[in-house]
Amino acid sequence: MNGKLTKHSTAADYAVKLLSVLCPLIYFASYLTRKNYGVIMTAIIESEGMADDVAGFIETLALISYGAGQVISGILGDKFKPQNIIICGLSTTIACNVLMPLCPNNVLRETVWFVNGFAQSMLWPPLVRIMAETMDPKTYSKVCANVNVAGIGGTIFLYLSYPLIWQKLFGASGWRATFFSSAIICGIILAVWAFGFRSIQSDEKSAFNKQDREDKETAGGKKLSVKLILGSGFLFIALGIILQGMLRDGITDWDPKMIADTFGLTADKAILKAVILPVIGVVSLKLVGFINEKYVKDEVKAAGITFIMALGCLTTLFFFHDKNEYLTLALSAVSVGLMHAINFFLICIVPLKFEKYGVVSTMSGIINSLTYVGSAAALYGFGFISETTGNNWQIVIGVWVAIAALGVAMCFLAIRPWKKFQA
Questions:
Q1: Residue-wise DSSP of 237-303
Q2: What are the structural domains of the chain?
Q3: What integer pLDDT is reported at residue 414 of this predicted model?
């Protein structure tokens, strides 16, 4: 195990068990207060009369600030106590979720959600550092999978709560209740996090200190350099991560609109049926966590093989997307599930390889920011294509197919240099 926590076995065991619960809770709160806009975007479009590209632009701005903020918070997470950065991020995101449904126009909505994106960026890199420095690789892999499952659990809650509770209670204004309820639940989790972390003994929290970081930065007399990164195949991995982000969030956020347009469904029915996307995501993550522990020796190769599977699903979707709504949902859900698997390999496992250099939070921030470069491009780009082609979703799906094919290429180009980097 890594970090000073491992030097006190009893205390370390307690800390790991506690963090194994607290870290997934944080990501549940994160997804609840970040994904809510995307999940109910179709309902907001229907209620407020916004154009697809305008609605997508609000989310795109949030993704831009989220992606850029990942790098900043990643650096901060290696220099300061990560638990405090998380508290700051959650507090800000609660305020944004309270303000969002109160905004009278799109300009204010764009501003609030842009700030929310930055606040959300203060969660993942510090979490990765906390897990990497307190857990052995096997425990890290298991808890990291659970963290991602918890995040998707928040998405499932959103898909179910809007059509089954808020829309029924408040009609067209039900989307506002989604933001308020997300803020309340997030506030409860913030209190649990703050109280729970205090119960870890003070000497254990000192594991996240400057000296410990400096020791790792010079591990083996080596420092992470630009030359070392360039020779590692990381640029190919980075492009693969961007492409994964485009498909994961692009399909998730626009699938309800595609289903509604193609099969003439109302927004609430389309959102309810689209719950299958995150459900398959949970199944995928639990399965990939097991497979990774038992069989995966090369996370980049595993991501490449998974991209091939997604390419097959999306190619089938291209030809049959308008034949049957349940077939369309199933193919979309499996494709998103495969993207969650790729996300696990490239976003969760790859940063762990930099822990010995003492920059796991920084690299995690950079890597995760790349996901949202793709997400931002997808949210606005797919909306723009839909709007300008008169909701011709086959063209959008054709773009998805091309993106998956590029993902395959990027991962396989990275396999050999990445192995050399780890040798």
A1: HHHHHHHHHHHHHHHHHHHHHHHHHHHT--HHHHHHHTTHHHHHHHHHHHHHHHHHHHT-S-HHHHH
A2: 4-422 (1.20.1250.20)
A3: 92
